[in-house]
């Protein structure tokens, strides 16, 4: 249907064409390409860069392989890019830094290697950065450290490294961050306490040490067993909360722990 003057939107009923093998369209004005949860295979074609009006692109989960094409950096209007749970390899193309309107980047659960692009959050509008469970290495780029718009960060399951207090900035909009299973080190700084919207902070299986003071809050439920992975922790304050349940046996792994304060948590056994 290429080289025609067909107007209007593509009907939703096209998804019922379950036996369709080839669909040829010239889609230079396409805004949304949402192909998630299919059985698409092969490489992402470099011609994806010709869809210069795209604002949303989702290709996951599909059994795609190969690398993310450099030409994806031509999609300067792109706001959401979702390519999760595929078999993609290679590095994250530096041309992603051209996508200055992008608010959501989700490329986790692939086999990507190399470093995070230096200017990935240069424009300061990125809200979701999800690159979990790849094979990424290196330090956190400065553009991410200064990206105050971030509300959700998932870097878990990589081989990233650096000082936990120096690699990350102050994120006033941050709600969720997972840095687990990397090679971060150093002492937790007080700047994490300035993330007033933060509801989930995950840092297990790193080389982080220091004090965690969660006292005088409204924490409920049981003490997470994951605290047992903070083997360098020397002080842990949980007093004046509403915790319940048993003290997890995993806390016995904290051989460097000097202070554990659970006072006024009356329902802990």
Describe the structure.
There is one protein chain. This protein has 269 residues and is an all-beta fold. It is 1% helix and 25% strand. The chain has an 8-stranded parallel sheet, with no helix packed on it. It is elongated, with a radius of gyration of 22 Å. Residues 1-6 have low confidence and may be disordered. It is found in: Cell membrane; Membrane. Pfam families: LRR_1.
Distinctive features:
269 residues, mainly beta, eight-stranded parallel β-sheet, seven-stranded parallel β-sheet, 1 helix, 20 strands, 1% helix, elongated, disordered N terminus, LRR_dom_sf, cell membrane
Summarize the structure.
Pfam families: LRR_1. The chain has 269 residues and is an all-beta fold.
């Amino acid at each position: 249907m290429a080289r025609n003057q067909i107007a209007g939107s593509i009907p939703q009923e096209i998804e019922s064409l379950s036996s369709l093998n080839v669909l040829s369209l010239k889609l230079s004005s396409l805004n949304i390409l949402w192909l998630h949860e299919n059985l698409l295979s092969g490489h992402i074609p470099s011609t994806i860069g010709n869809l210069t009006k795209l604002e949303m692109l989702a290709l996951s989960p599909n059994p795609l392989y190969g690398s993310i094409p450099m030409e994806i950096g031509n999609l300067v209007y792109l706001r959401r890019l979702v390519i999760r749970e595929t078999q993609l390899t290679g590095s994250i193309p530096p041309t992603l830094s051209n996508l200055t309107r992008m608010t959501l980047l989700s490329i986790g659960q692939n086999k990507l290697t190399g470093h995070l692009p230096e200017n990935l959050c240069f424009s300061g509008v990125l809200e979701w950065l999800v690159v979990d469970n790849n094979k990424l290495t290196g330090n956190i780029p400065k553009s991410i450290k200064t990206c105050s718009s971030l509300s959700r960060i998932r870097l878990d399951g990589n081989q990233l490294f650096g000082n936990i207090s120096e690699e990350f900035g102050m994120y006033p909009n941050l709600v969720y961050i997972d840095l687990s299973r990397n090679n971060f080190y150093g002492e937790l700084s007080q700047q994490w306490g300035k993330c007033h919207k933060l509801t989930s902070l995950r840092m297990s299986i790193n080389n982080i040490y220091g004090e965690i003071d969660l006292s005088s809050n409204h924490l409920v439920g049981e003490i997470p067993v994951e605290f047992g992975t903070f083997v360098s922790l020397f002080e842990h304050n949980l007093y004046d909360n509403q915790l319940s349940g048993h003290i997890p046996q995993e806390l016995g792994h904290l051989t460097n722990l000097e202070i554990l304060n659970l006072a006024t948590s009356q329902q802990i056994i």
